[in-house]
Known about the structure:
By secondary structure, this protein is of the alpha/beta class. The chain has ten helices and five strands; from the N terminus they run H-H-H-H-H-E-H-H-E-H-H-E-H-E-E. It has a five-stranded mixed sheet. The chain is globular and about 50 Å long.
Amino acid sequence: FxxxxxxxxxxxxxLGLVTEAGLAAGLAELYGLDRPTTGELLGDLWDWYVxxxxxxMAEFLRRLRPRYRTAILSNAAAGGRREEQTRYGFDELxxxxxYSYEVGIEKPDRRIYLLTCDRLGVPPGEAVFLDDLEANxxxxxxxxxxxxxxxxHRPGDRRRGGVPGSGIAMxxxx
Length: 174
């Protein structure tokens, strides 16, 4: 994945600058792959990205609703919403889903936290933010109430992020 990171293709995809088809074409070119092999690589990338459902966090989100408004905030390339919805039914776990590729902003940019709070109808200082990356937690702290931005990470846990996958976050209004 180092070559992909260095190419800038993944970040461009997370910012919505590259469509899903453009990502596939870019991967094929970057790695010199034919169409079937590119499809296999994309499947493997989605399996890696989405990971396994953190059932404890998913149940926590379910218990919060409808008493509290919840959101899932994800840095993802085009197709992320579809993949997570198909596998885990995220629209049943949270009131608001924010995907970086759809809004052209990714964590830890402060604007994505403000946008998420706005869509929730919650002032940033009244939101709780959970994430597996300290940089994302620090950015959320800078936007809202630092006492309410907490890391959700267990070293070595394949369930990266608040629910499954890399870069998933959960914001709730208390």
